[in-house]
Design goal:
Order of helices and strands: HHH
Number of domains: 2
Radius of gyration: 16 Å
Number of helices: 3
Number of strands: 0
Structural class: mainly alpha
Distance between the termini: 39 Å
Helix content: over 70%
Largest sheet: none
C-alpha cells in the first residue's frame, strides 16, 4: 500500500473536524472555536496517551514534549502552506 493511501483516512478525518469547526465558527466565532478545538485535542490526546503507557504520571513530561513537538511541526507546515497560498493570491 502506498503512503498516500495510508494517509488518506488521516486527512479525511482531519477535514471532517475542520468542516465542523468552520460551521461552528459561523455562529461562535473562529477564536472561540479554535480555543475549543485545542482544548478538545488536549483532552483527547491525554486519553490517547493514557492508553499508551502503564504509568501516565511517570511518562507525562515525555508525552507532553512529544505531543507539543508534533503539534509545532504540524502548525509550522500548515502555516507555511497558508502563507504560500496567500502569496499566490497577490
Amino acid at each position: 500500500m502506498s503512503d498516500n493511501k495510508q494517509e488518506t483516512p488521516f486527512f479525511e478525518i482531519a477535514d471532517q473536524f475542520i468542516d465542523l469547526a468552520n460551521k461552528l465558527a459561523q455562529t461562535e466565532g473562529s477564536a472561540n472555536v479554535g480555543t475549543a478545538l485545542r482544548y478538545a485535542a488536549a483532552r483527547y490526546n491525554t486519553f490517547e496517551a493514557s492508553l499508551s503507557t502503564k504509568d501516565l504520571a511517570k511518562d507525562e513530561a515525555q508525552i507532553i514534549d512529544m505531543l507539543c513537538d508534533d503539534f509545532r511541526e504540524m502548525l509550522k507546515v500548515n502555516m507555511q502552506d497558508y502563507i504560500q497560498r496567500l502569496a499566490k493570491k497577490d
